[in-house]
Every structure is written in structure tokens, then in C-alpha cells.
Predict the structure.
Amino acid sequence: MISFFLLSLPIFAVIGVGWAATRTRLVSQGALDALNAFSFRFALPALLLRLIAGQPLRQSFNPEFYTGYLASGAIIFVLVLGTSRVVAARDLSTAGAHATTATVSNLGFLGPPLMLAFFGERGAGPLAMAILAEVMVLLSVGSVLMGANGGPKSGIGSLILRGTMFNPIVVAIVLGQLLRALVSHCPRQLRASSAFSAVRPTRRHSSRSAGPSLCNVSTAEPPLPRA
Amino acid sequence: MITVAKLAVYPLLVWLILGRMMQLDAFWVNVGVLIACLPSAGNIYVLAQRHDADPQQVSAAILLSTIVSVVSFPCVAWLALD
């Protein structure tokens, strides 16, 4: 049990450190914005592209999982939307915000480090499917509902388009899967790239030696902790 | 209510649908459950603020779910994986 805490605590601690740094003004708002933008537009997409492209397609593309996960999210979305709208008598915009908050997870910043820590690089496949379900569908629907009481409005079509074509994380996942589907072996440049080596903290939990090639990580056993 | 739905009901439903109804491989079920019990995304607050859709409660729910998941996430991981 304690090992599960020890595995996830450092990742949550980073959030706490970031929060404390902001509160104590150790980091300026400008630096924070730049760091957020860099993480969201470059670091996370690069990490996901590398992970997805390095796995067999069947481990990163699972329509059954996608359908089941999306159905679960949609049910919770509708339940919270209905409860907020009918029971709490909130307007559609507010109910939409509540439903979105109850279903869209912090997949960008917490998903990769936690899934890599608990499941190794195999965890990237389900994570990619979950991102496609929550960000592309639930967040887009939620955005439309939140805009229901006036303010800047966008159609569901343009929101889904923005949530896919202009979302760097979604683009990285789709490109990674395309790359994997098009080439039987992942590009040597991707494998050899040391630029992404910093995102391999899970290796220390694995019994395998550090620095394996990307193309055979799918055979690696997930580094599950033992309670 | 939002935090309970996010951190408890959602993962439970994912487990029921993926594991019990669809009977997927344990690996996919476990990852699905753990992804579902992650805290709410921070960017929802930006959207809620832009549309004036109860940003205070959204912000509180994001903060609360993040704090609770420091404990709930490893607990669910322990239940699912051990």
C-alpha cells in the first residue's frame, strides 16, 4: 500500500511545489504562462508522439476501450448535468460546467507521469484513447453547453475541429498512431533522440536496465509496485 | 457532488462497463479505472470563466479533486492493482 503512495506522491508534490512557487511569487505570471505554453504545445506532444509511435498499434488503438470509456464518461456527464439542472435548478451553462468538471480529467499534466509510473510505457495507449474520448468529445460538448447562456459562442463542429486539429496533444496522438501504422519500426531518430530521455523516470522502477530502445518497450513488464 | 462523481462514481462505472460488461483485458480495465480517477482538468476553469458558467464552484471542485486524489489515487491503484 505504502509503495503506491510513494510512487504517486512525488508527482502530486510537483503540483504543490508549483502552487507554492506561484503563491510566494518565486515564479512570475509571465514565466508561468510560458512554462504552461511550452509544456502543452511542445513537451507533452513530443512525449506522447514518442510513446505512441514506439508501440504496436494494437496497444495504442483499442476501439473497444475507447467506446467503453467514452460511454462511461457520457453517462456520468448526463447524470451530473441532469442533477445540476433539475435537482439543483441551475441554468444549462452552469450544469454543463459541472458535468464537464465531473468527467474531464487532468490527462495532460497528471496522466502521462502517473500512467508511466504505474504501468510503464504500455500505459500510454489507454491514456491516448482516454484523451481522445474526454478532450475531443466530452470537453467539446461541455464547451458548447457552457456557452449556452450568451457570451462567445461556437458550434459543436468548430469546437470539435479546434479540439482535434488545433490541439497539440490530440495531433501528437493521431500522428504517433499514423507514424506507427505507416512504418513497421519506429524511426531511428525517434529512438535515438536523447531530447526525450528525461521523461523516463519509470525506468528506475523497472527491473530492466535503463535506456532500452523504444521499439521493444511493449514487451517490458509494467513496473507495478508491490504493497 | 462533482468531486464524488469524478473521483468515485466515474472510476466505478468505468470498472463496471470495461471490466464487467465488456470484459476487456485486465490491463486496459486497470488503466481505464486509474485514468478515470484522476482529478478534474484545470483548463475547465478557463472555459467556465470565459462563459461565466459558475467558475467559483468549478475552481473549488478542481482544487478539491486534486487535493483528495493525492490520497484517493494511490488507494484506487492499490485496490485495482494489488
